[in-house]
Amino acid sequence: MGDIMIILTGAYRLFFPSAALFAGLSIPLWLLSHAGGTTPTSDPYLWHQHEMLWGYLPAALVGFLFTAIPNWTGRPALSPMALLALFTLWLAGRAAMFVTSGAVAPQILAASFLPVAAVLALREVVAAGNKRNIVVVAMVGAFWVAQLVFLWLDTQIGLTIGFAVALLLMTLIGGRVTPAFSRNWLKKRGATHLPAEFGTVDKSALILTMATALLWIITDTSLLTGSAAALATLAQALRLSRWRGLAVWKEPLLFAQHAAYAWIVIGLGLLTAVCLGDWASSGQAHHALGAGAIGSMTAIVMLRALLGHSGRPIEATRADTILLITLHLGAALRICADWVSDPTVFYHAGGTLWAVAMIALAIRAFPIAIAPRL
Q: Quick one: average pLDDT of 126-155?
């Protein structure tokens, strides 16, 4: 009983291990379906797209939000019962989409999690007058709109909106935490050459990435989208280069943040290749942003938060390093699959590695989640 109560004392304790386990178990089901085996639902392709973008990511995002909001606002964390109710709503949505992803009632249940989470988060930031983070809550609302479009209007447009919003969220949140954590780590070690402060390069990267996201939604993979994506790729690469990633390579949990942000550059580059020529597929751009950026960025944020908020040193074990490398390798293999004549081996090898990494993360996280803070 004590372990149950402990796991309800923080959003990171409940959502992070569950998100990782869900991701790690979902991919093998999709691979089995892709190989012609048992299908997870009546529409396995829709299920795979929906559950990785609106099943896994919201769990990681909400776990992050309700762990960070008390620090942002100085207000109390969600009560154990409110946290349990929110988690139950997320879990019910996963079960509903698993049973029959094409029916309206399960889709309504699955689509109810994000607006509830957004309202709860908005209540906290407004009550604290924390205007700076209203934009994060607004983007959670935009992500919900993308889900509604995906489920009930047009799956491809909804998918594009979903990836576009996720791209902006990662640019915003990753752009805050990556240089900040690296700067703090280097300062403690007496370094004088620190990651660049937020400035013109960062503003340009944000504006160009936002323009790319909007054009991608409105004009799909047009020449306009490709041109904006090319400029955004360069701006994001320049932004990342100013954060001194190589200076923190000795601390894997810091270097991994830079590696995760690099997937945004790769994803934008692949989107450019899709729009301006026949050099890549939309699926490759999706997986660079999904398996690559979303997968690695959420994994490192979850792992750091679990260690930090449980009172443990935010330092990687050798197993953590292997886990993160495996995750990146799985994403890379999946993207390369579309460049070979027979992609089957790459599909399954990439998916298996990615899933193994997520299951390893869940195994790492659960003992921390049910243990008292050190």
A: 93
